[in-house]
Amino acid sequence: MKSKRSVILLTIVALLVALAPAAAQDEVTLVVWDNWTRDAEQAMIEQLNAEFEEANPGVTIQREAYDTSDLTDILPLALSESGGPDVAMINQGFTGMGALVEAGLLLPLDDYAAQYGWADRYAEGLHARNRFTEDGATFGEGNLYGVSNTAEVVAAYYWKSDFEELGLSIPQTFAEFEAMLQTIKDADKTPIVFGSLDGWPAIHTWGAIQHAYATLDELDAFMFRREGGTFDTESNLVSAQKMVEWIDAGYFSPGFEGMDYDNQTFGAFLNHNGVMWITGSWMTGSIIEELGEEEIGFFVIPSAIEGAPPLSIGGVGLAYGARATTEHPDLAAAYIDLVTGPRAAELLFEQGFLPAATVDPALLVEGTLTADVVEAWNTISSQNAVGHYLDWTVPDIAANIQELMAGQVSPEGFIQDVESDYQAGGM
Amino acid sequence: MKTRFFSSRLDNPPYIHPYQAYLFILPGLIIYAVFVLWPILNTARYSLYDWTGFSDPVYIGLDNYAELWNDDDFWLALQHNAFFVIFYSILPIMLGLFLTALMTRRTLRGMTLFRTGLFIPQVMSPVVVGIIWRWLFAYDGPINELLLALGLDGWVRPWLGDFTWARYAVGGVGVWVQYGLCMVLFIAGAQSINTDLYDAAAVAGANAWQEFRHVTLPGLRQQILVAFVLTFIAALRVFDLVFVLTRGGGPGKETIVTSLLIYREAFQYNRAGYGAAMALVLTVIIVTVSALVMRLQASEEDAQ
Amino acid sequence: MIRDRDYRRKQARTGLTYLMLIIFLIGALLPFAGIFLTAFKSSSELAQGPFALPETWQFDNFQKAWDGARFGTYFRSSVIVVVPVVVIATILSTMSGYAFGMIRFWGDNLLLLLIVLGLMVPSEAVIIPLWKLMGTLGLRNTYWALILPQVGLSFAFGTFWMRAHFKSMPTELVDAAVVDGCNAWNVLWRVLFPLSRPALLSLIVLLFMWTWNEFFLVLVMVTGDLRTLPVGLALLRGRYAADVPVMAAAATIVSLPVIVMYFIFQRHFIRGMVSGALKE
């Protein structure tokens, strides 16, 4: 009995020994954490992963998907010890990438950027958003810690039928845009679908007005906390006053304070309970899924400064970065190269995403929503008019905007509140 | 008679030796100590450190607590927690008692269905509760439509986005979710009440209220204590419900609660040490109140 | 005559009870009905409100939840975690609840407070130290990382609850049942345990529900196929917009087991109890 068992054991050991060399040969697992959770997105990334595995024999991609907010919450822990993800999608800003860099958890990618020519993927001004100095203290310069594969622009979706009916065309100046709002209001329609219950959409809507009045230098100084960076500017005050003015004029959905984004605001726009919706290009795929390419158009809101380009909130999406302690840095870089490269851009575009890399013009069909969105992005990126998400620097600003909109604080008080948060380090 | 934490009156039945109590508790206590108590002690330790959660902790003494003392948001959040005690604890207990009284003394048809149906709000995922109630409270939602139909036009408002009423709206959902828990505890308790007592009450000609007041309520003392401590803790630790209803605790800061701040500090602002300090202060408050309630109850027992 | 009036009054009271219960039941169930209907709709129908009937009943939302969100896999993990937690915690806390409820011993109140402490600390603050502990023990990314802490927490509630139950138990009942030569162990399992059905079953339902719905611990401790249903549910939230109908379908799938369980327990076990042991 006993001897039989030891024979079996010996056989197993022998087998393992025999198999071991073969198994050990370049058998590598690359752990990747991303936020592609929807069916179509999963199909896209699985496709890319399969292509990567094919091009790199012996490599297995072990992919873990997370909801974005969950991902950003637990990523620091996971990166802080071995066994965490080799490659992960990272949120920008001081509390995101900045904190990770400060703790030494991310791999600087500049050498790989040179090797793979990532600089040409998109404008350096956009790469700056994935840059930090090594101490994590200065945002927008220093080492490159990530590469993005999607782009975003916050602008206005609109119902083409309403524009036709009211004889409106895409506004060329901010004054025209405002006049348009009044025309729509006079026709007894809601000019802008809006819901501020979730907080962050208020940042985008007020931000759209703010970006019309501000200059990029002003915003850069504020966002990157450069010298002279302040919230207490004339343009911020004017746009705060403008927001209050628009609310009083009834330009937004009635009861917008209680409307959420996913369900009620999106639903209100789909059901044509308003003419325009100021939000990000990320909704394109969802809108096309429900209404197709023809009914809805998209345009960037013009600047209120004469002759200035239409500065708009936008930028690059979450960045692919690598864990500082990864055992396979070269492989990680190769993976990042693939998922942010032209092949990925092609697949992303098919899914209704706006790729950060340039889209082949041959793919665009005149008169479609997709073409409008790509054009909007090209307009702002080619004119260096890509603005910022304010919550990267002042994470609590949504609450301040809600207070402003409800008349709980005056525009002046609003400026002071945000400025003091900013001076206190943003929290 | 004064109660002590260390009871000296060890008048146990003859078949029990007091030391056996420790043996009965020990197996669970070991798992509890390692996987619950030890992390709690570590949290207490980290509250003395400047620590992101993933960096090397730097000892800073009581600095986190000093900062907490001057943190207006923290005090505001605590006030909101206190406000939610009414909606998470007191009202659900009353409602739970009322429903238990309705359902335990009569043999009605379909009772299982009623009990199960009334329990459903407690079971539903918070994410879903959020979606549904956001819609019910919407400006053109059913609640406002009902108000219009009743001619109460002045009351129509975007409830969850209203600076005055958002807290009451969130509280109302709290009642809706929490009463089911109290109900389950009370129904279980009521089923252990000696039925002789009800027979005696019936013989004495007690009406429904008297029966409830003199038989059911005293029979549920222990269960009410558990329900109170549990729901009180829930009111002070509330996170999910506020998060799904008003996201960051909006509008403005009208519905921020302590757990929301703790979560934010620990996982979004990378200040786990500061979050730990917040958690510890909150825990001390919860422990103090719970201990007082348990003592009060114990001394009542001794008085009997 | 008098008997007739009594009878009618009783009838009226029963009717009133029904009426009130039905009103409460509607209040409890209406939102659930809304979710149920939403699970059969397309996204564009959402703005008509949850109670509008779907234009066409779309079962593929359930399909998407089950396949796309890998609910089959997560369901398995949920069962693997929940069953041991509920079984172990119920047994351990029945024992300690008995000790606290029926035995007087030195330090009981303080020890009880120490155990209930586990329920009082906000879990958001404890999770990082717990994560580190699991790393040290080499248990991270195993089912143990989910089972052990939840046994601990369930033990805290279970002890508190079973203590309350044993304290409220009529002592005459116990005294009458104790046979000469019984020891504490036998008294607990042979005499008290069978008499504790309502308390035990509600404990099981609550522990099942809480463990079944636990989200954050699972999110932080494990990855991949070890994840349980609530984390699967969270994956249905997109980056900016959620697919609400699929989420509604998924939420229905997630909440059904608990509902069904409470229903069965109420129906088969508790009713038998009331007319059984205590009455005799």
Describe the secondary-structure layout.
The complex is a heterotrimer of chains A (427), B (304) and C (280).
Chain A: H1 2-24, E1 28-34, H2 39-55, E2 59-65, H3 68-79, E3 87-90, H4 94-102, H5 110-116, H6 124-127, E4 131-132, E5 143-144, E6 147-148, E7 151-159, H7 160-165, H8 174-186, E8 192-193, H9 200-213, H10 216-223, H11 234-248, H12 261-270, E9 276-280, H13 284-291, E10 296-299, E11 314-316, E12 319-322, H14 329-339, H15 342-350, H16 369-382, H17 397-405, H18 411-423
Parallel strand pairs in A: 1-2, 1-3, 8-9
Antiparallel strand pairs in A: 3-12, 4-5, 6-12, 7-9, 7-10, 7-11
Chain B: H1 18-46, E1 49-50, E2 58-59, H2 63-69, H3 72-104, H4 111-123, H5 126-136, H6 142-149, H7 166-190, H8 195-203, H9 208-219, H10 221-237, H11 240-246, H12 258-268, H13 272-303
Antiparallel strand pairs in B: 1-2
Chain C: H1 2-38, H2 60-68, H3 71-102, H4 108-120, H5 123-137, H6 144-168, H7 171-177, H8 184-195, H9 197-213, H10 216-221, H11 229-234, H12 244-274
Helix pairs in contact in C: 2-12, 3-6, 3-9, 4-6, 6-9, 9-12
CATH class of the largest domain in chain A: Alpha Beta
Number of strands of chain A: 12
What is the global morphology of chain A?
Answer: globular
Low-confidence stretches of chain A are 13-25
Order of helices and strands of chain A: HEHEHEHHHEEEEHHEHHHHEHEEEHHHHH
Q: How many structurally independent domains of chain A?
A: 2
**Strand-residue fraction of chain A?**
5-15%
The Cα radius of gyration of chain C reads: 24 Å
CATH level-3 fold name of the largest domain in chain A: D-Maltodextrin-Binding Protein, domain 2
Largest sheet of chain C: none
Q: Please count the helical segments of chain A.
A: 18
The name of the CATH architecture of the largest domain in chain A is: 3-Layer(aba) Sandwich
Q: Classify the helix fraction of chain A into a percent range.
A: 40-55%
The gyration radius over C-alpha positions of chain A equals 24 Å
